[in-house]
Amino acid sequence: MTDRQITTTLTSPEDTCALAARLGPLLRAGDVILLTGGIGAGKTHFARCLIRSVLLEDEDIPSPTFTLVQVYDTRQGELWHSDLYRLSGPDDCVELGLTDAFETAICLVEWPDKLQDLTPETALWLGFDAGPQDDARNLTLTWHTPRWDTVLKGLVA
């Protein structure tokens, strides 16, 4: 499969949130989004904005850094937000039930390198890096499957 890729600059946290809010309603069960970037790159901010855009009822959206997984009921079904930073490897991911969730829920995964060979080939990768100004982020979206061609069409400039 050939990688497809788009790179864009998000000029502010509000710009990051707006993109997440536009993407959220387009997702469905089985969609996996892998969020990469260093600490403070904007992964959790993006995830919170995306989750907020699809929640059935407004609720607190804590970081899953210590709980490892937060599960939400959304308009599109169950959404799992996981942070794998503290895990040692793929066996821990299986124990969390994450591989099953990849098939039945929308999944947002921070620190997806811990998945190793469990990484779904159908996933959308979002890579966050420091941008040209303090609050800006360069975002690189990478995918293999045609599903994301349709979802991302017109979403990212």
What this model shows, in words?
The two termini are 24 Å apart. A hairpin with a 6-residue loop joins strand 6 and strand 7 (137-143). With 157 residues, the protein is α/β, with parallel strands linked by helices. It is built from 5 helices and 7 strands, in the order E-H-E-H-E-E-H-H-E-E-E-H. The longest helix is centred in the N-terminal third of the chain and has 12 residues, at 43-54.
Q: Please report the total strand number as a whole number.
A: 7
Radius of gyration (Å): 14 Å
Alpha-beta content class: alpha/beta
CATH top level label of the domain at 16-118: Alpha Beta
Average per-residue pLDDT, rounded, comes to: 92
User: What is the name of the CATH architecture of the domain at 16-118?
Assistant: 3-Layer(aba) Sandwich
Please give the order of strands in the largest beta sheet: 1-7-6-2-5-4-3
| Oligomer classification | single chain
Compressed to H and E, one letter per element, the order equals EHEHEEHHEEEH
Organism: Tropicibacter oceani
Subcellular location: Cytoplasm
Main location: cytoplasm
Protein name: tRNA threonylcarbamoyladenosine biosynthesis protein TsaE
